[in-house]
């Protein structure tokens, strides 16, 4: 039976980031992905590398600050994949957040960015409002422009995985984990690949299976406790409408949420929703309610269409992913997007990762590798991920 230092289950952005970071730190790593790397949630996000301006409303200051630091690093390490892009916030007389609240939030955002050049913002003069891709001007009282970054989420995940493989990681796609037997000195990991049952020994296992994280825990022997979570579906619609020049940050006309209208593949992408799922069976699929919600918001803000039916005929593609959030009484929009790591004294060689943001995958990876170093001891590092280009 082969033996490695670490088996990672899940080839999304967090699994790929942990693989890269652990291999750079000198560990022998195997990653198992039941589909293709970056093929699920990490291909269906809002495709933003951002601090999360809206998280300031919930008081998640540390998350915003860390995200802005990671934004700066990713712009440096992956300039062909992560690019700065202007964001626009229109404020109407009927908006729930008035221009003084928005200005205060953007000021705080600028301070938390440590006065990075991308931290600057401005109020657009009235004569520039008409340039915003058909945005309705009636009732508009102010427009703010600030900066964040956009990426191809799937391409970024694959690039991080390529870096991990270059550092020695073995990545196996279409590998279904069937069981993890936790023993005093190692974990026996059993999986099926190409119809064959495979077993190997791993000194440690990291469960980074995204929305399937608790399914992996269910196959651990002896049984272990799991975190109660909510699975929250997010849908984006790609519309056959020429891409806007930047990203519009819009307040939903139906509730207190924020949605984005973005350029993507020379077209217009709008998202996202937050739909609580009772369970996840198979590939997530958007609902009629989600589509109507997004199209209704677009229709509310833009003057070039007069019905949802006209917009619906322009839907090219639907992107649908599932996020993992801690189970709380608060609505999903108000809950933290910070990842949380769970360990157990009964299963000291197994770490479980819940949640997480695309922007902060590197910080999550470093935290996981710190646990690995405590559990196994440090190895001789072969690379510095803070200096390693993501190509």
The helicity comes to 10-25%
CATH topology of the largest domain: D-Amino Acid Oxidase, Chain A, domain 2
Uncertain residue ranges: none
Q: In CATH's first tier, which class of the largest domain applies?
A: Alpha Beta
Number of spatially distinct domains: 2
Tell me the CATH superfamily of the largest domain: D-Amino Acid Oxidase, subunit A, domain 2
> How far is it from the N-terminal to the C-terminal residue, by CA?
34 Å
CATH level-two architecture of the largest domain: 2-Layer Sandwich
- Biggest sheet, in brief? 10 strands, mixed
Organism: Shewanella eurypsychrophilus
Keywords: FAD, Flavoprotein, Oxidoreductase
Cofactor: FAD
Domain FAD dependent oxidoreductase: 5-362
Summarize the structure.
This protein has 391 residues and is of the alpha/beta class. 25% of the residues lie in helices and 33% in strands.
């Amino acid at each position: 039976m082969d033996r490695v230092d670490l088996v990672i289950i899940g080839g999304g952005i967090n699994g790929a980031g942990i693989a890269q970071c652990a291999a750079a730190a000198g560990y022998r790593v195997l990653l198992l992905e039941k589909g293709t790397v970056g093929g699920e949630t990490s291909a269906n996000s809002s495709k933003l590398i951002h601090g999360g301006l809206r998280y300031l409303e919930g008081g998640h200051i540390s998350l915003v600050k860390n995200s802005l630091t990671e934004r700066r690093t990713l712009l440096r390490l992956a300039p062909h994949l992560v690019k700065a892009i202007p964001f626009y916030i229109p404020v109407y007389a009927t908006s729930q957040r008035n221009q003084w609240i928005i200005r205060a939030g953007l000021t705080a955002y600028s301070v938390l960015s440590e006065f990075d050049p991308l931290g600057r913002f401005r109020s657009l003069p009235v004569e520039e409002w008409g340039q915003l891709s058909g945005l309705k001007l009636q009732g508009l009282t102010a427009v703010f422009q600030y900066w964040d970054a956009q990426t191809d989420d799937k391409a970024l995940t694959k690039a991080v995985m390529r870096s991990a493989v270059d550092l020695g990681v073995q990545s196996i796609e279409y590998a279904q984990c069937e069981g993890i037997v936790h023993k005093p000195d190692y974990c026996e990991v059993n999986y099926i690949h190409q119809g064959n049952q495979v077993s190997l020994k791993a000194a440690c296992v990291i469960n980074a299976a995204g929305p399937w994280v608790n399914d992996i825990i269910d196959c651990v022997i002896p049984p272990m406790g799991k975190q109660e979570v909510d699975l929250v579906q997010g849908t984006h619609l790609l519309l056959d409408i020429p891409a806007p020049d930047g990203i519009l940050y819009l307040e939903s006309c139906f509730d207190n949420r924020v949605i984005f209208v973005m350029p993507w593949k020379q077209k217009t992408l709008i998202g996202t929703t937050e739909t609580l799922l009772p369970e996840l069976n198979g590939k997530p699929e958007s609902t009629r309610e989600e589509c109507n919600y997004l199209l209704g918001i677009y229709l509310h803000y833009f003057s070039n269409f007069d019905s949802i039916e006209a917009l619906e005929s322009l839907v090219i593609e639907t992107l649908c992913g599932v996020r993992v959030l801690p189970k709380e009484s608060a609505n999903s929009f108000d809950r933290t997007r910070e990842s949380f790591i769970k360990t157990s004294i009964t299963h000291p060689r197994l770490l479980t990762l819940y949640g997480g943001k695309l922007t902060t995958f590197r910080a999550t990876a470093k935290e996981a590798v710190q646990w690995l170093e405590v559990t196994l001891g440090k190895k001789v590092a072969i690379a510095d991920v803070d200096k390693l280009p993501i190509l």
